[in-house]
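Table S2 (text version). Query chain:
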Amino acid sequence: MRALVFSIATLLVILLCWSIKTLLRPAPPAPGPNTMSPGTFIENPGVRRFSDKDLEATLKTAIHGSELHWSIEFVRNPPPGKGSTGPAGILSMVSPAAAWFIYMEGAESYWFFNGSGGLEKSQGSVSSLVSIRDGKVVTSLAPPAEVIRRLPLDLQMLYPRIVPKHTGPSL
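Corresponding structure-token output:
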């Protein structure tokens, strides 16, 4: 009988501890502030977020060897919590030190440059619309002027001349 009482008491203590731990568990962190916005160039791996009244986007990037792995998750507002996994891809680079970048053109529009001869666009749920492959234009999909200006000179020459932004008075 003592063993039964001891077992029940032990079980009650365990349930009480579990209940207290569950009740005191902190709420999940709220989404952080925007760490990217349209017009942003991203040049380091990590997690970036963008949110407006209609959409939350989370861009995750990581370098594995000479590949840049990326994924984008979109959550539409409202209703809250209705998430969808967006596109994902792997960008092969010449080396991990390649001057790759990602350009956020809009909430669902991103340009990915592999640091040498490849440029791709992700639009909404479409993961890869190739613009340049192996240093050659393969589609009529033209990147924004900001992206062209960031490309190496030989790739810039593949597009019609981009007039530099006016930064001062003309003479």
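Notes on Table S2: Confidence is low (pLDDT under 50) at residues 26-30. The first strand starts at residue 40 and ends at 42.
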